[in-house]
Amino acid sequence: MADGSVQPLRLSMKYRQLGSLTVSEIGLGCSGFWGHRQFDDRQAIRIVHEAFDLGINLFDTGHNYCNYNAEPRLGRALAEILKRSDRSKIVVSTKAGTLRPRPLLSLREVKTQDHSPDYIERACAQAIKNLNAGFIDIFYLHNFSPASITDELLTKLAAMRRNGMFRLLGINTHSEAHMQYVAQLKGVFDVALIDLNVAQLDRLPVVEQLHKAGIAVVAGTVLAQGHLIRGKIGHIRSAADLWYLARALLKPDARRLALAARDVRPALAAVEGLSAAQAAMSYILGLPQVSACIFGTTNLKNLREIAAAPEKRLSEAHAASIYSAFRQQRTFASA
Questions:
Q1: What is the DSSP pairing of strand 26-29 with strand 58-60?
Q2: How far is it, in rounded angstroms, from Cα 307 to Cα 27?
Q3: Quick count: other Cβ atoms within 10 Å of Cβ 73?
Q4: CA–CA distance, 211 with 183 (Å, rounded to integer)
Q5: pTM above 0.85, yes or no
Q6: Which of 66, 114, 150, 183 sits between 20 and 30 A of 54, alpha carbons compared?
């Protein structure tokens, strides 16, 4: 680790195939408050180093994340890791297509996305420089619309891949309709990074569609932005807690997740031998269609807790209880 302490043994991490890549079941999401300038750069880098020492080899970020600060921050952390480890030991993913988050209030039209072929190529080239990785392992189109997937864009992406800029092509979307669209484009995309957690198990049919189309599924938002853990959101102990509370209150998707998660929390908390966060991770890792779960944090204790999840599989009885809680929540929501 960067602070000179003894490296922990890599006892708990497990690995899966994601296309041609071997990835840790848990990937570190390098976004959110982790990427903000208000969060100490040294502590952010320490989290990346600790994750690597725990056996995590998948690191995910985005070109525009945290006002363009997350990608170069991750690059600084990876540069130090690569001084003591081979490039083949890490898998780096990033995204392009979003310029800035859509403002909550705006009196004028603001351009938030650019999926033009030239911009996507420029963003990928800059990402390679930012990340100090030589190439991108998984390059995602971020928040796309079907209309943006033009022949010109696909031709450009094919040339970028041939030129060694990235290895696998992915899509990152929150829209189930867009997931279905991608599943129909067989042979175009290798990976789909989607929101998937025990409060959103109604997405299992589209996950199966993606899997049958030969598209690897990476699950994000596995803890429903913290709403699956009782007391996680709203307990203010740090600037990060305040940031996540503001997101939970202001963003419509976060409010929907909060409502969906409330009836599943007791089933997660009732799992013996696992924390609620580990139970939530273990359930999603138990889905055969899922290649990896992405998890973000600013807390080393939380990181170590989640990194231990792969060795703590759910029993069939606990998995059934969690699914039953989800089904009751869906029944109540539709009543």
A1: parallel
A2: 9
A3: 24
A4: 8
A5: yes
A6: 66
